[in-house]
Amino acid sequence: MWSSLKLGSNILYMLLIITTSTTISSCHSAFTSQDYKDALEKSILFFEGQRSGRLPSGQRLTWRADSGLSDGSSTTTYHVDLVGGYYDAGDNVKFGLPMAFTTTLLAWSVIEFGNNHSQEINNAKVAVRWATDYLLKAATATPDTLYVQVGDPYIDHRCWERPEDMDTPRNVYKVTPQNPGSDVAAETAAALAAASIVFKDSDPVYSNKLLKTAIKVFDFADRYKGAYSDTLGSVVCPFYCSYSGYHDELLWGASWLHRATSGGNDSSYLSYIQSNGHTLGADEDDYSFSWDDKRAGTKVLLSKVGRLNQWRSPNFQAQYTPGGLLYKGSESNLQYVTTSSFLMLTYAKYLNSHGATASCGTSTMITSDKLIALAKKQVDYILGDNPAKISYMVGFGQKYPQHVHHRASSLPSLQAHPAHINCGDGFQYWYSSTSPNPNILVGAIVGGPDNRDNFADDRNNYQQSEPATYINAPLVGSLAFFSSG
């Protein structure tokens, strides 16, 4: 296996370069296991607020209702069933790349830490399946085609309306052999492969369908290479432009297929990784793990079957806020915090299972305890152990964001206001209101504070106040770990 299985320049080393303002204490605990259980339940409940399609009878966030029931079939160009899936954040567009990444991370959370909290495992599986049911349709509706988006984001963003009231165009976008999208296709393959592991025991027929589809979608991604934003840039950029390219997704997708098929005698994906690792950028890192860049996650995933020895020290200094929060960027910074925390806990689990430690250079020893302590500090910060004493999870704790940048949450529900709310009225009467959101989007993690621990609870400040599915998904795994006590 390629040399980066030693986890060369890696995000995990970066997180262990602690600034003078950051301290780690394995003794201090701001929260009890019951607090983490409460947060875990809420973090999964959040996905019900993001649902598109016909809602089930067991829908718990009852202020939401059916939406997007003609997605895919209402356009003049395509006539396919694309009902379902998730809205990615506070808007009403279904973006395929972040939805697939969300699904992969939700599935990975269940795979690694689902046994830590059996009471919530079924709800987590439901959240995974809501996504995979949609991704299966997107991947199988038309041969050699993957449908990757529903909704024109520019028109959608000019309106502030409930999903239930949508009257904006529900345009459909796809990748094909002529207009490839290896990034979004390989991420979709990763999502389906990871989910096949989740359902392998509880629903083997569904699991087999997911895996077979994942294999076909990955072959499509690898056979017709190209970034989806090269042909769909006018509607996916700058929202979910493939800034890192598609090489990282190909390795990520192959890695998940290797894990999903490794129970048999299929070694083809491991051979693919060995043969293509260097060419596809396995030795590179951007010191982050996100819907766009999968390199750090791939290395941790493969470390389960690889060598756990020396790490090469990168010339990089991790940035933290004065309060100790990992800081990567000014927009939706908590997405990097939740993914990094999850990777640390997952790698700590792998270290323990191998009975090993790892070293950075010649001096710093990486132990599972160090990784767990640092991950806990990040998770606790999110839940309220921070200078502002505010929980960045909506509905958790005594103080949390009230003006979340989220259409359905900020507008009155159909029960409270049955009449249609048009595009302009939503902006005029509710978006600009200083009143708290009428509907609590329980469990949502917002973008979070700036590099000085400052947070503006302002609906207009989407950089800090907008939630997203891919912020929550990895936190599900971390909270499951800590809720086990």
TrEMBL record:
Signal peptide: 1-26
Record-linked Pfam families: Glyco_hydro_9 (PF00759)
Family matches, as PROSITE patterns: GH9_2, GH9_3, PROKAR_LIPOPROTEIN
Keywords of this entry: Carbohydrate metabolism, Cellulose degradation, Glycosidase, Hydrolase, Polysaccharide degradation, Signal
Domain Glycoside hydrolase family positions: 36-478
GO molecular function: cellulase activity
EC primary class: hydrolase
E.C. code: 3.2.1.4
A biological process from GO: cellulose catabolic process
Family annotation (InterPro entries): 6-hairpin_glycosidase_sf, 6hp_glycosidase-like_sf, Glyco_hydro_9, Glyco_hydro_9_Asp/Glu_AS, Glyco_hydro_9_His_AS
Catalytic activity: Endohydrolysis of (1->4)-beta-D-glucosidic linkages in cellulose, lichenin and cereal beta-D-glucans
Superkingdom in the source lineage: Eukaryota
Keyword Hydrolase part of the UniProt annotation: yes
Active site per UniProt: 405, 457, 466
Family: Belongs to the glycosyl hydrolase 9 (cellulase E) family.
Name this polypeptide is given: Endoglucanase
Species of origin: Penstemon smallii
